[in-house]
Amino acid sequence: MEDDRVNLTEAQKKARRNRSIALAVALVGFVVIMYFVTIIKLGPSILDRPM
Fold it and tell me: Which tops the pLDDT comparison, 16 or 44?
């Protein structure tokens, strides 16, 4: 079988990298927002519970 891989240009590689970085930043942002929303919903009394 011959080499069926697609060779990307430098511009395509850069665009792929930029998309990957943007997706990673969006995912981290979503996780941080969900963390803070969870902490806010639980309230400050979560720290005063007996162990």
Answer: 16
